[in-house]
Design goal:
A seven-stranded mixed beta sheet has the order 3-4-2-5-1-6-7, with helices on both faces. It contains twelve helices and seven strands. The chain has a single domain, classed as 3-Layer(aba) Sandwich (Rossmann fold). The longest helix is centred in the C-terminal third of the chain and has 16 residues, at 238-253. It is globular and about 50 Å long. Helix content is 37%, strand content 13%. Helix 1 crosses helix 12 (238-253). The chain is an alpha/beta fold and 276 residues long.
């Protein structure tokens, strides 16, 4: 049975979308069937896989509002076995439009239930750099959260708020969700600061920190501009090698469980506290 995971950190510029795209692409290259869901109104995962978000007729926005199913919006991309539920600019207004909706925190979970999670080996959700209703939907729909943290001075800034939000989601919306891993990104091993930050993060998260560390790499920065994951843009680059190793480590940690029970139209939980 498939597994749904969320890549999450409300801090922007930490490599969240880069990580989501490249883990998804490498999983697909390892013969896993993968669905990447772009829950960010900026649509960087969508454009990063060579889809013009301005030309998308139906997106994840339509699924959240109940105007389309995931089946109707999913697009196949390259490499083989990789699919995406694209984003669009309409997603910016989703939170306002859902404010009075019944069970608004469960809209993505319901869409996944209708799709059937068993159709994919992995469903990876890329989230916006915020703790809004879109992120809460992603946290409610998964069992495992992976947090990218950049190897910079303010890496742990704001993390308390993220951990608090996850605890509130666990208490009120999804008792099974857990932080399953922390991914260190943007490492510059020429600086002493990087080593200090890595040590500090490991002291906080211990075994949850992945051994593979993603370095700063110009090829990783260039790849989205060409609409390609790094394995297609430059598979010999250091960035590609590290994301391949990260994906192998990710797979080594996996034990595929039964999918979580999907609640049938649960009573809506007020998400106001979750978004503060």
């Amino acid at each position: 049975m498939g597994k749904t995971i969320t890549i999450c950190n409300q801090k922007g510029g930490v490599g969240k979308t880069t990580t989501a795209i490249n883990i998804a692409a490498y999983l697909a290259s390892f013969s896993k069937k993968v669905l990447l869901i772009d829950m960010d109104p900026q649509g960087n995962a969508t454009s990063g896989l060579n889809i013009d978000k301005r030309l998308v007729d139906k997106s994840i926005y339509n699924c959240l509002l109940g105007n389309a199913t995931l089946d109707e919006i999913i697009k196949k991309v390259y490499p083989d076995n990789l699919f995406i539920a694209p984003s669009s600019l309409d997603l910016t207004g989703a939170e306002i439009e859902l404010v009075g909706a019944v069970a608004r925190e469960y809209k993505l979970q319901k869409a996944l239930a209708e799709l059937g999670e068993e159709r994919f080996d992995f469903i990876i959700i890329d989230t916006p750099p915020s703790l809004d209703l879109l992120t809460i939907n992603a946290l409610t729909a998964c069992k495992e959260i992976y947090v990218p943290l950049q190897c910079e001075y303010y890496a742990l800034e704001g993390l308390t708020k993220l951990l608090h939000t996850i605890e509130l989601v666990k208490k009120n919306l999804n008792s099974e969700v857990e932080i399953a891993g922390v991914i260190l990104t943007m490492a510059d091993f020429r600086t002493k600061l990087t080593q200090e930050v890595i040590s500090e993060i490991k002291s906080h998260f211990n075994e949850k920190v992945f051994k593979t560390i993603i370095p700063r790499n110009i090829r990783l920065s260039e790849a989205p501009g060409y609409g390609k994951p790094i394995l297609l843009y430059d598979e010999n680059s250091i960035g590609a090698q590290r994301y391949k190793e990260l994906t192998e480590e990710f797979l080594s940690r996996q034990a595929i469980d039964q999918p979580q029970e999907i609640k049938d139209e649960p009573e809506s939980t007020d998400s106001a506290e979750l978004q503060q």
